[in-house]
């Protein structure tokens, strides 16, 4: 292996074996199937492909998927910050338990959170009943989609913000306070600038997860075409109707969106690193 | 992410304003997490036991449910080791060597996290389905992958692909390879070096990745739902069984199976916390 042009010299063995297996497995399980779908979608005549992507029902589903994911990520940015703040800044009984609980949406199978949310928020459920009195219906409306995506996205925001909040330099806050700055002023001028990149990362991760989410949404959303039908569900429906081209077209669009989100996440993280590198004077 | 340090307010005098802020923040946090996390979790347990412990037990003894439990365990028994071996190989190649295209490889490994589970199932249909690339060949040789167990296994590998690798890569990069080089120069073989030096160093990170991978594998719904075909007693995993029972308004049975999955989730969180605590600060 030494002296190879592709890989730098190393005294360690096993590059050929591990690299070979990694790329083979990755290609066989991930890349080849993705290519199969992309090639199928690109085999559709261009004007048909555009028609499928701009179909009224498809556009309604994008609006719901992207709108609900953005709203849920925004809600998580606010409440996730409050939760992260509580976990980092305050010592209270049960703090460690609460900290562990944050990962529950990652650990709980999406079908389970889906039927649980549908039950809790159904018009006869614990919370649904109370909300019905106020004239709000969550289950089987777009609000239900938002609630499910808030649940799924919460850990992304909290886990992004927590380490950033630990990094906030307490001396700066104390100095600002001793110079007479009020609590809100300290928050806006010292805490928020430090935490903002992490908050943006958490928001983007939660949003990216939200647009593709399926299991936790389909039970609570009611799945009405044009109204409460998310894009992943529309793909499943097309597949069930043997509309393979339609499914490939939407799948291709969603895959392209995933790449856009990956790019956005990298961009946000790079922006955060540059910003903190200069802003904090480290 | 363990060992999050907190600022203890003790030792600093808190102004009345700070005290009020603390109360408000804690109240909002607890209310939000209570509504969002505890209410659904509680609903699962309450609904599962709505008709008593006997009905819960009875529901789990349904033959179709038992077969779904078996299929979930079988899938995990194949997928978790496969992705563990992959994760170790990927981490060894990426953390120990410098080669061209490394960052592209890392991005591609993370790709399944960015892709919708439905897409993960869909792409397999275009590979192995009747109209897929290998559809005719598979038909001629009488092999079914889509709407059969192999499809479920492959879809599950797809979505749980990165878990072990992404735990091990940063860990092994941070640890460096001085000890491995020393062992090799003293005449230890590659396998001995791996088993005696590397494995003990990465064991907690590895275990952490395996726990997360297993949790995702056993709970996966979207990807599996696309390729399973929902054949009762044949191609239903536990999450799919939950869906079928729920859609039949058989709530006690649906929530009974869901309660098993919820217990798995809680066990996962406990195991994860123990590993974080055991591996110490900086472990994750």
Give structural notes.
The complex is a heterodimer of chains A (282) and B (284). Chain A is mainly alpha-helical and 282 residues long. Chain A has 13 helices and no strands. In chain A, helix 8 (142-167) packs across helix 10 (183-212). In chain B, helix 3 packs parallel to helix 8 (162-175), helix 8 runs antiparallel to helix 10 and helix 10 packs antiparallel against helix 13 (251-279). The longest helix of chain B has 34 residues, at 63-96. The N and C termini of chain B lie close together (5 Å).
> Which stretches of chain A are low in confidence, meaning pLDDT under 50 for 5 or more residues running?
none
Work out the radius of gyration of chain A: 23 Å
Q: What is the overall shape of chain A?
A: globular
What's the shape of chain B?
globular
Oligomer type: heterodimer
What are its keywords?
heterodimer; A: 282 residues; mainly alpha; 78% helix; 0% strand; globular; B: 284 residues; 76% helix; disordered N terminus
């Amino acid at each position: 292996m030494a002296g190879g042009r592709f890989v730098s010299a190393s005294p360690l063995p096993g590059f050929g074996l591990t690299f070979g297996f990694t790329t083979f497995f990755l290609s066989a399980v991930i890349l080849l199937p993705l290519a199969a779908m992309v090639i199928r979608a690109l085999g559709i005549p261009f004007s048909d492909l555009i028609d499928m992507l701009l179909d009224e029902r498809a556009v309604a589903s994008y609006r719901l998927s992207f709108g609900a994911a953005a709203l849920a990520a925004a809600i998580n940015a606010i409440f996730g910050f409050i939760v992260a703040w509580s976990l980092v800044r305050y010592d209270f009984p049960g703090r460690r338990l609460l900290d562990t609980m944050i990962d529950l949406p990652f650990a709980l199978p999406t079908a389970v959170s889906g039927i649980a949310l549908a039950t809790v928020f159904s018009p006869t459920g614990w919370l649904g009943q109370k909300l019905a009195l106020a004239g709000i219906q969550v289950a089987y409306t777009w609000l239900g989609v938002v609630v499910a995506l808030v649940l799924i996205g919460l850990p992304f925001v909290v886990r992004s913000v927590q380490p950033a909040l630990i990094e906030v330099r307490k001396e700066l806050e104390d100095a600002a306070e001793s110079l007479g700055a009020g609590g809100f002023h300290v928050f806006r001028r010292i805490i928020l600038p430090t935490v903002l990149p992490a908050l943006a990362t958490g928001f983007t991760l939660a949003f990216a997860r939200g647009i593709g989410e399926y299991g936790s949404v389909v039970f609570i959303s009611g799945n009405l075409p044009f109204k409460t039908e998310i894009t992943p569900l529309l793909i499943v429906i097309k597949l069930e109707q043997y509309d393979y081209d339609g499914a490939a077209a939407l799948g291709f669009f969603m895959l392209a969106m995933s790449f856009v989100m990956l790019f956005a996440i990298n961009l946000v993280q790079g922006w955060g690193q540059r910003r903190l590198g200069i802003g904090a004077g480290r | 992410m363990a060992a999050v340090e907190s600022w203890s307010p003790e030792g600093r005098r808190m102004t009345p304003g700070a005290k009020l802020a603390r109360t408000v923040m804690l109240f909002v946090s607890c209310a939000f997490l209570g509504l969002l996390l505890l209410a659904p979790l509680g609903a699962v347990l309450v609904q599962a036991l709505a008709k008593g412990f006997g009905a819960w037990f009875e529901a789990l003894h349904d033959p179709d449910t038992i077969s779904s439990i078996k299929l979930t365990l079988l899938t995990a028994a194949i997928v978790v080791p496969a992705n563990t071996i992959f994760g170790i190989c990927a981490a060894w190649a990426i953390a120990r060597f410098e080669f061209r295209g490394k960052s592209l490889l890392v991005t591609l490994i993370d790709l399944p996290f960015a892709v919708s589970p439905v897409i993960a199932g869909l792409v397999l249909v275009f590979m192995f389905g009747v109209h897929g690339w290998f559809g005719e060949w598979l038909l001629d040789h009488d092999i079914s992958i889509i709407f059969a167990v192999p499809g479920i296994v492959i879809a599950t590998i797809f979505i749980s692909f990165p878990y072990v690798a992404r735990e091990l890569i940063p860990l092994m990069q941070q640890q460096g390879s001085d000890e491995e080089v020393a062992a090799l120069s003293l005449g230890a073989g590659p396998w001995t070096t791996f088993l005696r030096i590397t494995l003990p160093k990465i064991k907690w990170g590895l275990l952490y990745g395996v726990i997360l991978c297993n949790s995702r594998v056993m709970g996966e719904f979207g990807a599996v739902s696309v390729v399973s075909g929902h054949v009762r007693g044949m191609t239903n995993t536990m999450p799919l069984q939950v869906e079928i029972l729920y859609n039949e308004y058989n709530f006690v049975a649906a929530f009974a199976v869901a309660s098993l999955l919820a217990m798995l989730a809680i066990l996962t969180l406990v195991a994860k916390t123990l590993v974080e605590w055991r591996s110490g600060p900086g472990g994750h």
